[in-house]
Amino acid sequence: MKRKGSTTTPRAELTRSAIPRYLQLATLFRRRIQAGEWQLGDQIPTVEELCKECGVARATMRQALGLLEAEGLISRFRAKGTFVNERPQDRLWLEVESDWKGLLTTRSGARIEILIDEPKSVPSVVPHPIGEVASSYRHLRRRHWRGKVPFLLADVYIDNHLKGKIPEAAYSELTALRLVTKIAGVRIVDVRQTLTIGTADLETAQLMNLALNEPVAYVNRTAIDQRGRIVMISNGIYRGDIVRIDTRLK
Predict the structure, then answer these.
(1) 96-140 pLDDT, tens per residue?
(2) What is the pLDDT of residues 34-67, one digit of tens each?
(3) Beta bridge partners of 113
(4) Residues 132, 159: contact at Cβ < 8 Å?
(5) How many angstroms separate the CA atoms of 160 and 82, rounded?
(6) Residue 39 CA: distances (Å) to CA of 24, 84, 126
(7) Are 94 and 151 in contact (CB under 8 A)?
(8) Whole-angstrom distance between the N-terminal and C-terminal Cα of the chain?
(9) Which helix (H) or strand (E) holds 61?
(10) What is the spatial distance between Cα 229 and Cα 13, in angstroms, rounded to a whole number?
(11) Which CATH class is domain 92-245?
(12) HSE-CB for 175 with a 13 A CA cutoff
């Protein structure tokens, strides 16, 4: 198989910043795979060639390639070389829903792990001040998995007036919005959603098995009931490497 070189000048792309150089290199090489510069099945340049091209030490280059190997994008073989396994977008299997029906859908094959459960809490920030804030909320930090991949870390706040009406098992099974829409006598009259793009901080990186400063999508949702009370707040962080956002324009 043909070994692919590069037509870019990465020395100029590596910046003097707080982001370690091996993370900058990993981002650069992901972009090469994404753009098709390094195609599926291609053998990429050797460590020595990449070090010379990028002006970094071998240890730094090995760290960068190690990240891509851990993500399944490349495979390294002794005495054979390093080859491209897949492109980042081939793993875009998670849709962040933007319509009412989609928000109520539980993802097939997903499981929810509860990391924090605080019976009485008040959110420090209300992302959408569209209703009356309840006196206290049940706060759960939940990590969502599909197979061995954590794809969502979410802080969910449920109005404590409703906690006796939600089966305990539901907190480990249902999406945040479904927790409150399935309650008899509760009618959700408004839901707001805001999405922003950012990078993983140290805590998020550790909990989501990401590299520091990898891209993530922040999704904040707020729901109010027929009384005008905010009954649910969900502040979620999605992995940026497996997320697709589809929006129907009307």
Answers:
(1) 555 555 554 555 568 999 999 999 999 989 999 999 999 999 999
(2) 778 998 899 999 999 999 999 999 999 999 999 8
(3) 143
(4) no
(5) 54
(6) 20, 7, 45
(7) yes
(8) 47
(9) helix 58-70
(10) 49
(11) alpha beta
(12) 19
Q: The tokens 């299997």 sit on which residue?
A: 93
Domain boundaries, the chain: 10-88, 92-245
Fill in the amino acid letter for 173.
E
Q: What CATH architecture applies to the domain 10-88?
A: Orthogonal Bundle (1.10)
Distance from C-alpha of 230 to C-alpha of 203, rounded to nearest angstrom? 28
Number of Cβ within 10 Å of residue 42's Cβ equals: 19
DSSP for residue 97: -
pLDDT at position 232 over 70: yes
Residue 53 has which token pair?
């091209």
Cβ(38)–Cβ(20) under 8 Å?
A: no
CA–CA separation, 246 and 248 (whole Å)? 7
